[in-house]
Predict the structure.
Amino acid sequence: MRKICIVTGNRSEYSRLKSVMQEIKNRPDLELFLIVTASHMLDDFGKTINTIKENGFNVDCVARTIAAGEDPASMAKSLGLCALELPTLFEINKPDVLLIVGDRFDVLGAVTSAALMNIPIAHIQGGEVTGTIDESIRHAITKLSHIHFAATEKSAERVRKMGEKKEHVFNVGCPSADIIKNIELGTREEICEKYRMNPKKPFLILAQHPVTTEYNEVKHQIRETLSAIHELGIQTIMLYPNVDAGSKDSVAEIRKFDMAKKLEHTNKFKHIFFEDFIKLLANAACIVGNSSSGIRESCYFGTPAVNIGTRQNSRERGKNVTDVGYDKEEIKKAILSSIEHGKYKPEYVYGDGGSGKKIAEILAEIDLKGITQKKIML
């Protein structure tokens, strides 16, 4: 039986691992070993370790890997904490494969540790193109990884062009699509009542995270967005930003707007269950901000998305996405235009489900002999 170690550190990452974790649990030839780190343990970010447990997964180990400060130096220290804590857990529990997803800075600490310890690494969502420091981290993880689970064919081709073995690169789609394709959406009235909104009126979803490579501009950027939301006066569901450098400044601006009673039509949440988020997304008039969900998940419902700034630069997207800059008037215009347009035709940009099962099957059957001895393939 192969022991598959999964390391997860934040809510968005977990939503893309959940179906894979379940499929690993379902297989008699695989053992799921789960390490929970980073913002999953923090109250300010919803303490989402509780969500993982409520979903029926056993948390085998925890590692507290976030350095306080929410600035670039704190991010670097957090990476170091991850690299300090995880080798001991790897050494004691001896996983056969480390499975990680995406491009988070703390994941890089886990991957580096595993690579140095000759643990085969499987990476979900390599080969994608975006903005901010995530772009560099993602490609660094690709070069440290041995098995690649790309979400689109374009991404898979980029991984191959980076010199990875073709036989170890798989286009499996995005695991979050598994949840989207199988979820019972219920009624608009039910989800609106749960999140304190009038179902007869349109609502927005706002999720805007700091862009770490534009750290000194974070306050201005969120202020322009909040001003647009305030002036439009449309009921809004807002998710607080993630733990990236600059989130403290973003939250401070949100509180200023709150104190000035400029967000009275906005319901704010540290965390929303992914299934509920999908139900909200399916019924929203528009999703606004720079979350990858505005690109990756919105296309499945044709929900208009106003993508602000550079964080999702060049990420593959559907026709439902409108790109704007950090300008209040531009944001307002794009939101109103999106609402007027209404829903777009759904597009399955990141696969049509079944990703978790495909990944688990490959992890069970792939030959691991000599896989950690990497060589660039030209």
